[in-house]
Amino acid sequence: MQQVQDSPLVSVIIASYNHARYVEASIESVLAQTYPNIELLVVDDGSKDDSVERIRALQELHGFDFRVQENKGLTRTLNDTIARSRGELIAPFGSDDIMLPDRIARQVEYMRGKPEVGICAGNVIEIDGEGHIYRDAKKLAGRRLDFEDIFLDRKPGAPAPTLLFRREAMEAVGFFDPNIRLEDLLIELKITKVGYFIDVLPDVLVKYRVHEHNTYKNYRFMLGAVLDTYAQFSDHPAYENVCQTFRRSMLAKCARKDKHLARELLRQLPIRYWNHKVIKAAIRSL
């Protein structure tokens, strides 16, 4: 891709694992960006399907950086790839999602002259496995998030597929924690904890694909990963309340689909955190 003076290099990193059905559309959406100064790095993390063949065919046409490795997991793959990337700005991107053509251009322009913004994000449209619109974008205003906003869930968060990181902000916190498998929440908290802000644009930037393997649908995984993340901030005076409020929200989500987990959460949730939603969830789980 042509380099342009005064346009910071953006490193887009796609870590692919068994997404043969979607990965070509994801890569092509990066190649179609209107922003002129992008390096694309794609890593296949031990896929068992035909992802490698599909990616290699595109790589031969377009010449982006592509490597194949044994499975290391997402966070380790991201850290390794960031270490050899050259961009001033970094966009980890899901191999099942699709960027809108002006996504990177809008975010780079917004971050220009705002060194306090460690992460820029935006809005998403949800699509299904066939690429059809599953749910329209939420009508949310632009917002600035600090640590308290995220930890206490005071404002709508930053959609993970849209995150564009300032490299120096990532360096300040040591990049992704390989021991935490839900990578985005922890790094958002760490980056805002050291004084940067996350600015979320109202613009729709990404088509987020909803399918049976989405991480958020694995309730037990989400519960453990989020609580492990919160545990890194256990000295915060609201720590217990944050954990119990999250358990309460997970209880409401899994009462019908994972009754065993719902009953576990009921046992863990002190009575003082019960409300009418908890009672309804308890009835459903029983």
Notable characteristics:
single chain; 286 residues; alpha/beta; Spore Coat Polysaccharide Biosynthesis Protein SpsA, Chain A; 10-stranded mixed beta sheet; 11 helices; 10 strands; 40% helix; 21% strand
Write down the CATH topology of the largest domain: Spore Coat Polysaccharide Biosynthesis Protein SpsA, Chain A
The number of helical elements comes to: 11
Give the integer mean of the pLDDT values: 92
CATH architecture of the largest domain: Alpha-Beta Complex
Say how many strands there are. Answer: 10
CATH class of the largest domain: Alpha Beta
- Looking at the structure, what is the overall shape? globular
Which radius of gyration do the C-alpha atoms yield?
20 Å
Q: What is the CA-CA span between the terminal residues? A: 58 Å
Alpha-beta content class: alpha/beta
